[in-house]
Write a structure and sequence with these properties.
The structure holds 2 protein chains of 2 kinds. Chain A is mainly β. Chain A contains no helices and 9 strands. In chain A, strand 3 and strand 4 form a beta hairpin. In chain A, about 35% of the residues are buried. Chain B is mainly β. In chain B, strand 5 and strand 6 form a beta hairpin. Classes of the chains: A mainly beta, B mainly beta.
Chain lengths: ~110, ~120
């Protein structure tokens, strides 16, 4: 079973920030948080990952709470092309490196 | 550079037939994964290769499913005696797995339909 829980769906107005929450209350100390998205009929695309510090790249920002039990992916200026299913995954950097996907959050960016 | 490629993009087969799905990972990536995705669900792990060996095949649903990666690059997922329940999108991903923190790069998938 997935170790994360996410809302099933969210809407966001184009040009506004999209904040996608993820709960991972059972996360272990060495597990990283990864975010991927899947645009219709494509394979999942890597967005960002982090361990405990907040991270930012050209696509998004990742905010991880101090207790690491939850995180938020922020798309600062959502566009219509950001409409996708977003997956939050936790994974340890050892052993089997497989991802266990949940059902993700279906983000719809509205014009 | 070139990403992960998968062939064919679509495969329609009759129940009971044998199929092979191919994955070409990103050059130099030592780790390779197969996932299966049913409609409306997230991808489900099938098997993980590190180099030529299957390091974890715990996700293969039964012994009709088998995968190989003989030279540590291209991988083939093989399904014998296909069933209608095998219909899904089969995704391949590769990773450099640098100290276990490498992100996975996914291919576009092969849509398998068993009639």
């Amino acid at each position: 079973d997935a170790k994360t829980t996410q809302p099933t769906s969210m809407d966001c107005a184009e040009g506004r920030a999209a904040n996608l929450p993820c709960n991972h209350s059972t996360i272990s100390g060495n597990e990283y948080v990864y975010w991927y998205r899947q645009i219709h009929s494509q394979g999942p695309q890597y967005i960002i990952h982090g361990l405990k510090n907040n991270e930012t790249n050209e696509m998004a920002s990742l905010i991880i709470t101090e207790d690491r039990k939850s995180s938020t992916l922020i798309l600062p200026h959502a566009t219509l092309r950001d409409t996708a299913v977003y997956y939050c995954i936790v994974r340890a950097p050892s052993g089997t490196y497989k991802y266990i996907f949940g059902t993700g959050t279906r983000l719809k960016v509205l014009a | 550079g070139a990403g992960v490629s998968q062939t064919p993009s679509n495969k329609v087969t009759e129940k009971g037939k044998y199929v092979e799905l191919r994955c070409d990972p990103i050059s130099g990536h030592t780790a390779l994964y197969w996932y299966r995705q049913s409609l409306g669900q997230g991808p489900e792990f099938l098997i993980y290769f590190q180099g030529t060996g299957a390091a974890d095949d715990s996700g293969l649903p039964n012994d009709r499913f088998f995968a190989v990666r003989p030279e540590g690059s291209v991988s083939t997922l093989k399904i014998q005696r296909t069933e209608r329940g095998d219909s899904a999108v089969y995704l391949c991903a590769s990773s450099a797995e640098l100290a276990g923190r490498g992100e996975q790069y996914f291919g576009p998938g092969t849509r398998l339909t068993v009639t």
